[in-house]
Protein 1
Amino acid sequence: MSTTTPATPAIQDSTVSTTSDTEAEPLIGTIREGARGQYWVETTHGLLLCTLRGKLRKNLLYAISPNLRHKARRANVKSRDPISPGDRVRIVDQGDGRGTIEEILPRTGGAFTRDAVEGPRLAGQVTTVSGIDQVIAVFAARNPAPHLRLLDRLLVLVEAQSLGAIICLNKVDLGLDDVLLERLAVYRALGYPVVLASADDGTGCDELRLHLAGRTSALLGPSGVGKSSLLNALQPELALRVSEISQATSKGRHTTTGTRVVPLLGSDGNTEGYVADTAGIRAMALGGAAAGKLDWCFRKFRPFLGNCRHRDCGHRHEPNCAVRHAVEAGTIDQERYESYCRLYDQGAADAGRAWRDLVSSRSLVREGEFRL
Ligand code: GDP
Ligand code: ZN
């Protein structure tokens, strides 16, 4: 399998050798799938089944995330996995299609979480995919009707994690009305690329492919909008590759995590980008410094922040609010402001819980589905 990619270069530095095996060559790879000590890692040597160095495994239970230590105390440590699909690791190829993970490289992109599955008492979330660069927010022109409040919620999560976002409106073969086109123009003006697509007739698929190139993307959106159909349109053998991995994995120990990072191959067989298989992803973690700044997550608000009379202005009913003045002046889109208000009020209504907790988990209805 040829999977040369700038995302997984072999380490050139020959001094980074931690094993006595002179055959072994350190490699950087990306976790494709796996859990609890066994992982499929995509490398320039192909897909390797890797185990974790014992010493590392012990340390890693606490070292990955600044939040993990706290959560791990509340939960059963052994049920947490130190590594998620999408993580980049340094490994040593042991030959025979096997390798050892020597080091987990620091996470850069965003991380997705799902609710802990161990039991209802454990409200903590488990990171299931990390290293995401961008979200492809998928909606349908019709069947189901586009849900723009949900889009606004996704964009908040995207901004809070400093990810890129592409809006993909699928099923345009079913027709597009002017009202929707007008709404989409608002998002284009905010700087979010909007791709009009149809998995059925291939419209927009080349454009989408360009956006996916060189990135690790997650396709998110309500069920039925055509996420799997789009992936199949982009790469017909993708479904097959996913099932191959599942089969190969089932030969190993119990390793299924429910999420995978799948390479999209170009016509030359090289990896063009990665797509997170988002089945089972129920929420996105809000990490980083922006987590508490709902207003900042609305791009058009930013120039006005700091100009309100109250320093902690919530931009709702406070007097002399620069954001509200901008809404009244038409500089900030009214609908976007209403989305902000909904999210703000949900957070405020639940004292003791940050709005970000609500955004990240509460309103998720079913696996893979979101509701505002
Ligand atoms: P997912 O739940 O988001 O993965 O959606 P699916 O890919 O399973 O698609 C849901 C339904 O929409 C299926 O019946 C598809 O055949 C249909 N569908 C997907 N893409 C298109 C499209 O571009 N045009 C039309 N007309 N139907 C589509
Ligand atoms: Zn204000």
Note: Residues 334-349 form the longest helix (16 residues).
Protein 2
Amino acid sequence: MMNTITTINELKKLRATLSAENKKVGFVPTMGALHAGHVSLFQKSVSENDVTIVSVYVNKTQFNDPADYENYPRDINKDIALLQNNGVGILFLPTYEEIYADNYNYRITENTLSKILCGNSRKGHFEGVLTVVLKLLNIVSPSKAYFGEKDYQQYLLIKNMSKAFFLDAKITKCPTVREHDGLALSSRNLLLTIEERKTAPNFYKILRLEKNIMEAKAKLEKLGFVIDYIEDFEQRRFGAVYLGKVRLIDNVQL
Ligand code: AMP
């Protein structure tokens, strides 16, 4: 049976018991509306640790757009069933008050990588991400924590933060899980209309196949995408686009 915990106190107590039993703890932070991309992280953690802890927490401080926060898909009952079916031992389900008892007065700021790509168009986004991840890592204190390559910039920032602050958890990356048509799985895909969903796979296809960035942008625009950015960084091509109101991100190795 999975144990669902809502308070930091309770989780820390349980964590101390696991330490006393010498258990290896894997941790996967998520914002819920779980899909097969998340499941691949749970499975990796379950295979590499004695106990897997998953947090489901829609972190308000990382949303630069209040409407995006309001509309973010939430389905906790479905999430719980999926976690139980995948061998997750503990679900951490905190409230804003629990995580931000300081009302977000203290924050983690990074000054270079967090300012480009997604950080350039989503002001304050990575500050919110790094702050919540540091808090969660301190609460859970895992041996390993798992992150998806789908959010590659986020993975790099978390890995560098963990080095900068001498964290013990090993930050592990997992490959992007895609639909059969190539679209990267994302909770936000649920918000696409039927028409948008049909167009969406062209994002990955063009990102992967069109070598020239200007050409790629032109092709995407012709299909109805609105470009946020497409840029190369450290042997990878990163992109963010809008289809209607939905923002999609992806990245491929060059
Ligand atoms: P989220 O719930 O979107 O914050 O994602 C939680 C974790 O799952 C992050 O580390 C994401 O990078 C990862 N993730 C999300 N979508 C995918 C995917 N399609 N493939 C692999 N990992 C993913």
Note: The chain is about 40% helix and 20% strand.
